[in-house]
Please model this.
Amino acid sequence: MTMEHSEPEPELVAGITGDWEMVVGLEVHAQVASNSKLFSSASTDFGAEPNSSVDFVDAAMPGMLPVINEFCIEQAVRTGLGLKASINRRSVFDRKNYFYPDLPQGYQISQLYHPIIGEGEVFVELAPGVGKRIRVEHIHLEQDAGKSLHDMHPDLSFVDLNRTGVALMEIVSFPDIRSPREAAAYILKLRQIMRYLGTCDGNMQEGSLRADVNVSVRRAGSGELGTRCEIKNMNSTRFIQQAIEFEARRQVALLEDGGEVRQETRLYDPNSGTTRSMRSKEDAQDYRYFPCPDLLPLELEQDWIDAIAETIPELPDERKARLVSQYGITAYDADVLVAERHHADFFERTAAGRSGKQAANWIINELFGRLNKEGLTVETSPVSAEQLGSIIDLIEDGIVSGKMAKALFDVLWREGGDPRQVAKQRNMTQITDSDALEAAVDEVFANAAAQVERALANPRVAGYFVGQVMKLTAGKADPRQVSQIVGRKLSEIRKSR
Model:
């Protein structure tokens, strides 16, 4: 972005003894968009029958060895490039050892010491002219665990291993976030970038994108970091904001009361809006990390990385700046349009060779409104970009009025067809014949002699005649031509007196 942005002020928590600053870091778990898992060929489709997408490797059958899915590696590199991060040509997979029923191996294959992606950054815009760069510490690849189900039987728990082995990118930020709003903006921007890249679908409801939130507090103005608590498995930006707000206030109250914050893992309860202790926070040594003996270090060729870099699409910030510059639309409209890559693509097809402002107005106000109302997406829109562009052409050519265009849009939505042919067949075109419009104006003048006199004294009254002609022609007269004819006739009457 070429626009200069000022840094937002930290959001302070008011305490009895003074103000406190919240310090937040996020560990975002993004499911890699891939048809198969990180180390097996099992499907990653969401919603399959329990335990139906499980390979021998996922189930930890004796003698089964993991084989790296090259496409998952490519997707991680693509994500790193999209976040302007350094790509580590050598990375190592480690075993993170712990026992849990949904982890058949008794360990998770992850990357602690040598992750695949190094430092990067995410720019978030919080208000017009107010933005912030949040640093990414690293991205590592790891296996997801399965899912324990505790609500299917009063005495038993069940385990679904379909998610076991699904590739995750853990995107770890530096503790640069200073408010719940910044945290939400950061996650949404990450999601937007990855959806542009095609590396994660960002579906938080299905668990494709979730976050562990690390929260600490410190005295306003202090440079030291406080003891952090981690809030696990958050899959809603609204709940993330609420959890940060509550946890920061809880820690402030604890510290001001003479207590101390214990490093621990906590859970957020959306029903009560509170966090509760889950367990003490483990450190790396608690998991007995060591290099995975089944996998050699991962070595990437620079030529391979460069080939992936050539596939990186124009990302949201750059595209927003270009749309504003190229099409003359507002920054707000550009923001709305680049929110999803398909939306921006639809806009550019619609606006090709036309008024960008007209195209943006129709898409944002008419198309998006109708799509939301009927639960559709741009990809499933009954009206194509080409049809919408043709409607705009008809308006610009004076063939249909704005009101007629909306009626035409409705017909196309329900029945389809070529806009020009439909407008002609449905008699939805404007009357532009000058003789017909002259006759209509003459008729209105003849029936409104008193209004003519008022208009001669006050030119503002001339609008009355335009309205009457539109009424007489059932809204089909071209209002611009009518206005010109009315003005000319009033001028002729003045000169004749």
User: Anything to note?
Assistant: Residues 237-256 form the longest helix (20 residues).
